[in-house]
Amino acid sequence: MTRSEKLRLIVSLSIPSILAQISATVMFFIDASMVGHLGARATAAIGLVETTTWLMGGLASAASLGFSVQVAHFIGANDFEAARRVLRQSLVCCFLWSLMLSLASIAVHSYLPYWLGGSEEIAHDASLYFMIIGVCGIFFQMEGLAGSMLKSSGNMKIPSILNILMCVLDVVFNYIFIYMLDMGVKGAALGTGVAELITAALMLYFLLARSEMLSLKGRPGSFRPQSDTVKTAFKIGAPMGLQHMLMGGAQVVSTIIVAPLGTVAIAANSLAITVESLCYMPGYGIAEAATTLVGQSIGAGQRLLTRSFAYMSVGLGMVVMTLMGVLMWVFAPELMSVMSPVEDIIAQGAQVLRIEAWAEPMFAASIVCNGVFIGAADTLKPAAMSLLSMWCVRLSLAAFLARDYGLPGVWTAMAIELTLRGLLFLLRLFRGNWAGRAKV
């Protein structure tokens, strides 16, 4: 393949995923705006437990990746029966895993807001929101698994369309539950849950009944998990799960650092994170394309092609996110004003967004490099690098700077850590032997 052909292939796979990621971000943007207009207390209630919901979602995604990376390798080797065998086992394992996560959410929901340092005025809404989102985590798990499997087969279009549909459904159901039925914060969680349920059903239909490579219709086989498949999934997914757990734990600690700064700071922090996601979601879209291309190239035994796709994907991601960072810096006040009518929230949010904008190029490097490493089933060392960077740099700096500089100090620590992490990932990309680690 020529360089232009490779770039066109990366872009063609990235665009649907980028659109889906952006639509998901717009969904969260609109959700947060809907809740934000209920007042600072409602926004703070969701913002308090938001990082913990990300933690649960990350653990679900890690389980899906443990199996979908295997499927990408088998498809690259043209062994479609082996790919379907992994798929069958993944449905059982991931369902059981999501059930455990949902039960854990129910068990801790009433205590969580107090553990995070939340005040009495927001604790009830925060715990109720977290419980509903946790119960609906089963839908999120199955939707994510089906989408990952379709993307592993090179089908980026259907998952992207359905993710966009989920965003539309989420906005519609949120409007119904939040405003028409006057359910407030609880309505936001229910709206998201119903949208995830419908999307999961459609995603599974296209995977199990319509996919040319992975459809199980008319192809009988055992769903019983086999030790070799589960061990490989664990080897790939466990470092990712540990990374999500400790990274999510770090986000929770970050919330604990922000919580004493007051309700306005909690709300501004939560809404600014939502706005910032407009910048980094394109990076995650390109990373998904990189995971697919690298995974299939390794499965086909094409090491040089693997590295070429990796380098070009990372470069594209850095260019796109740099441009997004410039736009975020320029329009930070306007973006925050959409999220909340409260002047103090707008001012604090715009200030921290402009701090974070400087870190976007290296943040892009870490995101897309991680997608490359996942495709190569090289997850342990990148996970360790992320965790050391997060816990040793971001949190220690944030705790130190928050005392004198408040919320801007917390976000300054975040920007420094993301820049360092991006540099470390680029060093591994160009000097590491990650491409030789994957075995089918």
SSE topology:
Layout: H1 3-36, H2 40-76, H3 80-108, H4 112-115, H5 120-135, H6 137-152, H7 157-180, H8 184-210, H9 227-258, H10 263-299, H11 303-339, H12 343-356, H13 360-375, H14 380-431
Helix pairs in contact: 1-7, 1-10, 1-11, 2-3, 2-5, 2-6, 2-9, 2-10, 3-5, 3-6, 5-8, 6-7, 6-8, 7-8, 9-14, 10-11, 10-12, 10-13, 11-12, 11-13, 12-14, 13-14
Summarize this entry quickly.
This protein has 440 residues and is mainly α.
3D architecture notes:
The protein has 440 residues and is mostly helical. It has 14 helices and no strands. Helix 1 packs parallel to helix 7 (157-180), helix 1 (3-36) packs antiparallel against helix 10 (263-299) and helix 3 runs antiparallel to helix 6. It is globular, with a radius of gyration of 21 Å.
Strand content: under 5%
Q: Shape, please? A: globular
Uncertain residue ranges: none
Structural classification: mainly alpha
The description of the largest β-sheet is: none
DSSP E strands, number? 0
Mean pLDDT value: 86
- Radius of gyration, taken over Cα atoms and rounded to an integer in Å: 21 Å
User: What's the helical proportion of residues?
Assistant: over 70%
Number of helices: 14
Order of helices and strands: HHHHHHHHHHHHHH
Give structural attributes.
mainly alpha, single chain, 0% strand
